[in-house]
């Protein structure tokens, strides 16, 4: 795979740079899924712009050369099944060499199907089973509060994931403690493994649900880099309350044959499909 | 490690009994005084967890997540990630069972430095019934890699184990009893993780117990002595990592082993000892504990006697073992 992208520095055309970063993440994730014959293409593609904005748009105050820096912002990938996009983002940000992505799910690889913080630098929480990331993030935000430290906690959750009750236990707690150092981002791609969310267990009215749980909540376009940058850079949305962005996304975004199709939740692209995807995303595959 | 035997049971006056939760809450306050990382998470039950004083003294390091155990365990992971030293304190029955996947993923698999204090464990809630008994916790938690489990026998060991836990690396489950129990350790007792303590020497048979059952095992040994049987009494307070050597020595040096615990026979101390014997030194064995049933209605004391988790029940099991070996 040709990264073609140097360590990201934001030039004048921020949106263009982030778009290129996100598409590289998309292509990388699909290539990894093709390699492992396992993965979660749909969610990798829907979350790529959010991940690129957080890490490569320099929203997160982190230092890849010191992943345990005490005052770093925490990012929790609660939808841990979208590890293809997550790992690609971490590698692009410099946490580990890009070449390591080629070991995705290989025997004894550090790149598990689901992230393991004890194996890979940059991973803050072991996720994969859904409904774990938000409670952990609430604990992190409480720790920052107890220690009087300025770092923030960003957590990316899936929309289907919110069917797990533990999220709402955590949301109530975040409200009670007024955790305005906590930012929840919902990847609202409207599709879960089996079907559309609204055909499974209705998630709407999702904005009102978060608001009623005490969050300052906003809907945003999950693929508009400038909009994402502006939203993430202006947290908390409201002082004294936790923030929630419902990022409207398209599952399978950027790859025509995968867009908005439940079957691509964990579809595995063939070599031929990878080539089509590469053309559509404008990224070359050189594995 | 051989400890001085406490001889309360031989004295004519009744020994003083203690609620181990007092020792646990005092230890927590002492640690919090010295170390600003120490914080507590409870799930509503302020008085059950004996945390009223802690909350008053350290209000900014005290979190009540409400009746929400899954969130509670996740919060513990996050607090540890953020540099705090969290203690999760709640009724063992809910904390272990309701949050079992979080125990597995957020604590054990993550190797998180989180201390879980399972309160009112075993059948301490007596009449409240099987929903509130926590006799499965040891089996459930023992099978998780990276999990450390301590079942203190008395208030002295409870305090010592609490102090030990602060600098332990990885998740640790401390089973804190509310059953009145007498002291079995002397005041200068030093807790060592993974080291069983021989409370009484004996060459005929070995009684291995933990938690509130240790004092009952000591009483059983006294009963057995009256019948000419010299029983070794071992306090296996660290259930995991278990002291293999102590078990193997007992198997080699005595005629058999009786395990006794306030838990299901399957999967807990009995199971752990059986695994070692089966693989490394087959030896006659009996398990005293709750059989494969849910308990009937009754107080904690009644239920322990009902299931033979008593001095006479343990002695009976020992005599049965010896009889069948003769």
Topology, please?
The complex is a heterodimer of chains A (287) and B (326).
Chain A: H1 14-36, H2 41-56, E1 74-77, H3 83-93, H4 133-147, E2 153-158, H5 166-176, E3 182-188, H6 197-200, H7 206-212, E4 216-221, H8 225-233, E5 243-248, H9 271-281
Parallel strand pairs in A: 1-2, 2-3, 3-5, 4-5
Helix pairs in contact in A: 1-2, 1-3, 1-9, 2-3, 2-8, 4-5
Chain B: H1 20-34, E1 38-42, H2 52-57, E2 62-64, H3 69-81, E3 85-91, H4 92-98, H5 100-109, E4 115-119, H6 137-142, E5 148-150, H7 155-165, E6 172-176, E7 197-200, E8 205-209, H8 213-226, E9 231-235, E10 238-240, H9 244-253, E11 257-264, H10 269-280, E12 285-290, H11 300-306, H12 311-325
Parallel strand pairs in B: 1-2, 1-3, 3-4, 4-6, 5-6, 8-9, 8-11, 11-12
Antiparallel strand pairs in B: 5-10, 7-9
Helix pairs in contact in B: 1-7, 3-5, 8-12, 9-10
Verbal overview:
The complex is a heterodimer of chains A (287) and B (326). Chain A has 287 residues and is an alpha/beta fold. Helices cover 37% and strands 10% of the residues of chain A. Chain A has nine helices and five strands. In chain A, α1 (14-36) runs antiparallel to α9 (271-281). Chain A starts with 13 loop residues before the first helix and ends in a 6-residue tail after the last helix. The relative contact order of chain A is 0.17. Chain B has two domains: 20-176, Thiamin diphosphate (ThDP)-binding fold, Pyr/PP domains (Rossmann fold), CATH 3.40.50.970; 194-325, Rossmann fold, CATH 3.40.50. Chain B has twelve helices and twelve strands. In chain B, β8, α8 and β9 (231-235) form a beta-alpha-beta unit. The two termini of chain B are 30 Å apart. The A-B interface holds A 70, 74, 116-118, 124-126, 128-129, 131-132, 134-144, 146-147, 153, 165-166, 169-170, 172-173, 176-177 and B 39, 60-61, 63, 65-66, 68, 70-84, 86, 101-102, 105-106, 109-111.
């Amino acid at each position: 795979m040709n990264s073609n992208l140097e360590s990201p520095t934001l030039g004048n055309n921020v949106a263009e740079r982030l778009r290129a970063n996100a598409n590289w993440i998309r292509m990388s994730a699909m290539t990894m899924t093709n390699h492992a014959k396992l993965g979660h293409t749909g969610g990798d593609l829907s979350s790529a712009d959010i991940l690129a904005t957080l890490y490569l748009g320099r929203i997160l105050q982190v230092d890849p050369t010191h992943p345990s820096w005490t005052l770093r912002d925490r990012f929790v990938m609660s939808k841990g099944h979208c590890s293809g996009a997550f790992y690609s983002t971490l590698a692009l940000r410099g946490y580990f060499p890009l070449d390591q992505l080629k070991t995705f799910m290989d025997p004894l690889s550090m790149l598990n199907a689901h992230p393991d913080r004890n194996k890979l630098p940059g991973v803050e929480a072991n996720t994969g089973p859904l409904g774990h990331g938000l409670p952990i993030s609430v604990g992190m935000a409480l720790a920052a509060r107890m220690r009087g430290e300025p770092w923030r906690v960003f957590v990316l959750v899936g929309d289907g994931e919110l069917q797990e009750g533990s999220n709402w236990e955590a949301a109530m707690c975040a409200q009670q403690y007024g955790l305005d150092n906590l930012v929840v981002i919902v990847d609202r791609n409207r599709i879960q493994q089996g079907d559309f969310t609204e055909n499974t267990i209705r998630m709407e009215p999702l904005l009102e649900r978060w608001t009623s749980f005490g969050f300052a909540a906003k809907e945003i376009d999950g693929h508009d880099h400038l909009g994402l940058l502006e939203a993430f850079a202006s947290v908390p949305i409201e002082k004294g309350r936790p923030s929630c962005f419902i990022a409207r996304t398209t599952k399978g975004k950027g790859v025509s044959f995968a867009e908005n199709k439940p079957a691509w939740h964990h579809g595995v692209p063939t070599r031929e499909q990878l080539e089509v995807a590469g053309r559509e995303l404008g990224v070359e595959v050189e594995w | 490690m051989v400890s001085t035997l406490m001889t309360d049971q031989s004295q004519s006056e009744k020994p003083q009994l203690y609620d181990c939760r007092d020792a646990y809450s005092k230890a927590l306050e002492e640690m919090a005084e010295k170390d600003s990382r120490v914080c507590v998470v409870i799930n509503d039950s302020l008085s059950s967890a004996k945390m009223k004083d802690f909350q008053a003294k350290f209000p900014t390091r005290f979190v009540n997540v409400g009746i929400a155990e899954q969130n509670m365990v996740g919060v513990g992971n996050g607090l540890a990630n953020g540099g705090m030293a969290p203690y999760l304190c709640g009724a063992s029955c809910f904390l272990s069972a309701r949050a079992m996947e979080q125990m597995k993923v957020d604590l054990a698999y993550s190797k998180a430095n989180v201390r879980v204090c399972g309160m009112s464990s075993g059948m301490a809630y007596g009449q409240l019934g099987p929903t509130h008994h926590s006799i499965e916790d040891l089996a459930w938690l023992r099978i998780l890699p990276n999990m450390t489990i301590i079942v203190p026998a008395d208030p002295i060991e409870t305090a010592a184990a609490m102090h030990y836990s602060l600098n332990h690396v990885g998740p640790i489950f401390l089973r804190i009893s509310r059953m009145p129990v007498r002291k079995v350790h002397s005041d200068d007792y030093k807790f060592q993780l993974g080291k069983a303590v021989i409370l009484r020497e004996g060459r005929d048979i070995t009684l291995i117990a933990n938690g509130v059952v240790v004092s009952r095992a000591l009483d059983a040994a006294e009963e057995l002595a009256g019948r000419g049987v010299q029983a070794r009494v071992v306090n296996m307070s660290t259930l995991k990592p278990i002291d293999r050597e102590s078990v193997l020595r007992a198997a080699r040096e005595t005629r058999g082993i009786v395990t006794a615990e306030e838990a299901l026979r399957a999967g807990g101390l009995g199971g752990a000892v059986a695994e070692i014997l089966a693989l490394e030194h087959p030896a006659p064995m009996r398990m005293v504990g709750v059989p494969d049933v849910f308990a009937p209605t009754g107080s904690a004391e009644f239920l322990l006697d009902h299931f033979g988790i008593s001095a006479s029940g343990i002695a009976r099991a020992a005599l049965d073992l010896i009889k069948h070996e003769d």
